[in-house]
Amino acid sequence: MSLTHSGGFVFMNAKQTAGSWFLATRPQTLWASASPVIIGTALAYRDGGFHLSSALAALCGALLIQIGTNFANDYFDTQNKIDQPGSHEPIRITQGTLLPAATIRLAFTLVFLAVLPFAYFLTLRAGLPILFLGIISIFFGFFYSAGPRPFSHLGLGDILVLVFFGPVAVGATYYCQALTINGTVFLAGLSCGFLSTAIMVVNNLRDIKTDRLAGKITLAVRYGERFTRYEYVFCLLAASAVVPLLMVLSKDGSFLKLIPAAFIFACIPLIHDLHMSKTPEDLNMVLSATGQVLSVFTLLFSILWIL
Fold first, then answer.
1. Measured between alpha carbons, how far is 122 from 13 in angstroms, rounded to an integer?
2. Cα–Cα distance for residue pair 18/93, rounded to 1 Å
3. Other beta carbons less than 10 A from residue 97's beta carbon
4. 3 found inside a domain
5. Interatomic CA distance for residues 149 and 65, integer angstroms
């Protein structure tokens, strides 16, 4: 092999490896961790408590925890034979042998460790409760898929996403900046929490058959497809309509801030597509579209509460 060809091979191999790592982060889901930080920061700015370095540290920590959780989920679900070759979900890098299992195990360990400097910085500013929340978040992220009885096998995934990607993350972000907290902040957290839960609901509906065979008892497996489809509708309605209305009524009465409720009209096609879906590929499109709704809703919601 000539030097030119060798160099080209190395370049292509490096490019493929980089692509595999990018795939492993599940970038289409990362808005679930960015969204509560953005909303918490917007509320802190509105209340005169904005602190840039704390906001950036919270964002980095949140993204790292989710990426570490995604790596761990990829590794343990493949080891437990939950994700099988030929499944209809986006391929997992361990399942697809794109990267060695030992490499992924090392990766999620290092990513979780990388959270600690940000947690330390935020602890210096806001106290030990923030360190405790960081440790708890890593604990749930790891044991979501790991251990003899992972949380994902117990039907706890939906509630964990609602709580930790909603009020907990928004509240922690706000507190690290404003050094105080109020009920409106937790209420705001429910909006992104419900939308993030909607993403998980679509994921569980898509995987209901393979999860049932593997003994992974999600809410979708436990209560069936009909329940899961209506759970999705409930999450969208709660996030886009109920939470903004309650915030307006409880805070300052500015009905301009009800504009995000218009997202309920954007959700109608998603609800239709979900109920008409026949294949896992159809649900993959709904999952991606729900993530896009979360991103746009977050930005609009945050901008309107800053104004």
1. 39
2. 12
3. 12
4. no
5. 21
Tell whether 141 is covered by a domain: yes
Q: What is the dihedral of CA 254, 247, 134, 62, to 10 degrees?
A: -60
The pTM of the full predicted model, rounded to 2 decimals, is 0.86
- Whether the CB-CB separation of 145 and 156 falls below 8 Å is answered with no
Residue range of the domain that includes 42: 29-306
Rg (CA), the chain: 20
pLDDT in tens, 5-62: 445 544 445 566 677 777 778 887 889 999 999 999 999 999 999 999 999 999 999 9
Q: Are 282 and 273 in contact (CB under 8 A)?
A: yes
> What digits encode the pLDDT tens for the residues 184-219?
899 999 999 999 999 999 999 999 988 888 888 899
Cα–Cα distance, 152 to 159 (Å, whole number): 10
Q: At what angle do helices 157-164 and 167-178 cross, to 10 degrees?
A: 20
Residue 252 has pLDDT above 70, yes or no: no
Query: Distances from the Cα of 260 to the Cαs of 34, 45, 201, 266, 301, in angstroms?
Result: 18, 19, 22, 10, 6
Residue pair 290/267 in contact (Cβ under 8 Å)? The answer is no
Place of tokens 């679930």: 32
Largest CA distance in the chain: 72
Q: Please report whether residue 6 resides in a domain.
A: no
Confidence of residue 228 (pLDDT cuts 50, 70, 90): very high
In a domain, 4, yes or no: no
Q: What are phi and psi of 294, to 5 degrees?
A: -60, -45
CA neighbor of 193 nearest in space, from 51, 297, 77, 46: 297
170 within 8 A of 192, measured Cβ to Cβ: yes
Residue pair 262/293 in contact by the 8 Å Cβ criterion: no
